[in-house]
Amino acid sequence: MPKFSVLTWLVIIVAQVTYGLLVYAITRSYYEDTSVTTSQFPAASPDPATYPQVGSFDAVMQPAVKLQPSSEALTTDDPALIARLADDYFMRKEYPQAIELYERALRINPDDVESHNDLGLSLFYIGQSQRAVEVLQTGASKQPDFQRIQLTLGFVQAQTGNKEAAFAAFNRAIELGPENTVGQEARRMLSEIE
Fold first, then answer.
1. What is the spatial distance between Cα 75 and Cα 44, in angstroms, rounded to a whole number?
2. Could you tell me the pLDDT band of residue 58, with boundaries at 50, 70 and 90?
3. What CA–CA distance (Å, rounded) separates 84 from 185?
4. Are 151 and 169 in contact (CB under 8 A)?
5. pTM for this structure?
6. Which is nearest to 151 in space by CA: 79, 83, 52, 59?
């Protein structure tokens, strides 16, 4: 055992206790915050897959999680409720479940461009890029002035190497609202592919 002075031992002990309390507080805070929201989710698959992360794009593309619907939402024919539940799966990166629910919402309401947007992004995240582009193009044709779908289409096109189509989609998103968050994100992404 090293020979430290009493003051050195006291500093070491205080540092260790402080570190322990800090870890305890952070861990406790984490589990208290997530227990409120996850207790309202339907049961998830026991081994969720890991999917790619694209940084700030997720935050821009998906709005904040709204009121969490219960598992009874699965028996409803309300496309808005089904889409909200799909959004919850999306935010938890459980893309196959989200895709199933977005498709269901679109069978009920095929003109829901936001569900087309979110379905396309989910498909991209599981590696179905061609299908994602098709879904996004269908949604964009239904409502060409929906800025977010233009941004998503540009993002997917850029990630799949179709820079011309990405350039056109990003420019369209910027044209629809150059100063809002989506327009600024489109400008940032456009600068990355130029």
1. 17
2. low
3. 24
4. yes
5. 0.64
6. 59
Rounded-to-10 torsion of CA 167, 172, 175, 181: -80
CA neighbor of 183 nearest in space, from 150, 144, 140, 137: 150
> What whole-number percentage of the chain has pLDDT above 90?
60
Amino acid at 89: Y
Structure-model confidence comparison of residues 44 and 18, the more confident one: 18
> What angle (nearest 5°) sits at the alpha carbon of residue 25, between those of residues 20 and 30?
130
The two three-digit tokens of residue 4, written as one number: 């430290």
* Locus of tokens 């539940």: 85
CB within 8 A of 61, min separation 6: which ones? Answer: 117, 121, 148, 151, 152, 155
| Residues in CB range of 146: below 8 A, 6 or more apart | 113, 114, 117, 139, 140
What count of Cα atoms within 13 Å lies in the side-chain half-sphere of residue 103?
Answer: 10
Residue with tokens 């929201």, as numbered in its chain = 37
